[in-house]
Amino acid sequence: MRQVVVPGGARITYGTGVRRRRVSGGDGHRHRHRHRRRPRRRRGGAFGTLGIFGKLARAAELSTATLLGARFLAASAILWAYLVRRGVPIRLDRRTLAAELGLGLVYGFMSVAYFESLAWLSAGVATLVLFTYPVQVTLVSALVLDEPVTGSKALALCTALGGVALVAGDGTAFGLSGLVLVAAASLAYTVYSVGSRVMVETVPAPVHAASVFLGVTVAVLLYGVVAGTLAVPTTPTHWRLIAGISVVGTLLPMLLFTAGLARIPASTASIVSTSEPLTTVALGVVLLGEPVTPAVAVGGAAILASVVLASPAVERAVADRLGRVDPRRTELPPDD
């Protein structure tokens, strides 16, 4: 039996197929649950700006390699400076560092594939199609991390898939290349999500994010060199886009995402984060004039419904109504 203390003071005990969580101190359940929800909501809104930045960059003739390369260089510099200034211990053993850099390469591939798909797809549609990944995360988490698939979570997955199917099948013109790229990005996101869930059990969230940024930066810069599209930004518009995507679309949501994974299962985190495509669709309509067909509207509503169904409150309500408690995930009362 092994016990891991994660950010927030929670202890997760592993062994004999049972996972228990006990909160140290006198905060209590209500305090813990109240602060769990906020990072996930903010993260979805921040990540929802990525497709918009990608479209604006294409309109400004700023290449994907240049945008992403500068994005992760800037975000890495900010985060590492923060860690050094705060005196956060950042030393990792070789095996852990290699795993973090590997996740960075995966995330870098996902970013490039997603942004390149915007050449064929609208920002809203690309993001909605990307969010088939919660299904993959749930399946992998059940097989690898021994996370339960509850009734409400299964219903949320079906609802989210139905919403994505409506969006993808509304008759909008798609490029096959765009669909292939965004499907590859979805698969890479699955690997990153599950891998991050494992890493943040022993690595503080900011250190995890900073280490991943190193791998991402290397991956993106290598892509730019090989593709021959890496260049120095030349206009004020280019620099404004880079500044915006580095802070709003990268640093903030990455920290919120990894902090959230330390407190909830990867499968729940990925489903709840489907609020991201709704943000992208809304911004696409307002800022880019992207059309929203009835199918896209209904699909978006279905995705929003899946967010509600996947919430911890709904999961608890369904479990109480059915009178079933998963023995692998037992909540213990706070310590006295």
Automatic annotation (TrEMBL):
Task: Show the Gene3D superfamilies listed in the entry.
Answer: 1.10.3730.20
The EamA domain sits at 47-167, 177-310
The record's listing under SUPFAM superfamilies reads: Multidrug resistance efflux transporter EmrE
Main localisation, per the record? membrane
Q: Which GO terms describe its cellular component?
A: plasma membrane
List residues traversing the bilayer. 66-84, 96-115, 121-145, 174-195, 207-232, 238-257, 295-314
Q: Where in the cell is it found?
A: Cell membrane
* Keywords attached to this entry: Cell membrane, Membrane, Transmembrane, Transmembrane helix
Which InterPro entries did the record assign?
Answer: Diverse_Substrate_Transporter, EamA_dom, EmrE-like
**Region (Disordered) residue spans:** 20-43
A family per Pfam: EamA
* PANTHER family according to UniProt: EAMA DOMAIN-CONTAINING PROTEIN, OS03G0707200 PROTEIN-RELATED
* Protein name from the UniProt record: EamA/RhaT family transporter
What is the organism field in this record? Haloplanus salinus
State the taxonomy lineage: Archaea, Methanobacteriati, Methanobacteriota, Stenosarchaea group, Halobacteria
